[in-house]
Amino acid sequence: MIYLIHPDIKSYKSFVINSEEARSKLGQETMFHFDPRPKPYSDIWQPLEIEFDSLSSAKKVVMPDITTRNGRLFLNQHAYDALHTVLDAHGEFLPITHKDGDGYLFNVLEDANTNGALDTKLSTCDEYGDVQSVVFHEDKLKGASVVRTAFDNYQGVYCSDRFKILVEGTGLSGVIFSADLGTIYPPDATAGSPAKH
Description:
Strand content: 25-35%
Order of helices and strands: EEHEEEEHEEEEEEHE
Largest sheet: 5 strands, mixed
Number of strands: 13
Mean pLDDT: 90
Helix content: 10-25%
């Protein structure tokens, strides 16, 4: 089974990449902080100092072990230690610093469009271009722990059962997994059932 990884913004902070910092370290022409396409950066990478902030109105949010934004994963050292062996073949670890320590941005380079893993017949958008459903040919993703697709403009990070089980089994915090690949919103465990009339 394939899952969409959502940031848990109700309980955890999200990372922010300062455009001036990105341009001063990676060159004035860089679009790393805006452009989610799976483009390698390790050859020009200089560790960025990133910030963390709340993206919700929740009063108490804490640092995550792992989170996602713009098609990339943040991993603290604990998350890196737990996940680097399953992620290594599918992207690049880009070292970063933040006020509470060090970590990595994992730039997912596994592209479902290049290996024919996106089911273009069953993946759909509405009349406004918003993604309604994303469907993969799972047999073409064998061995891929994480993947992205141009179908959602490379915004989402999708993962395998193996990756989900490893994140949950090691107690890493900061993300929510959803089997509904067509929604940009994470499932809300606090939402009640619809009222019966």
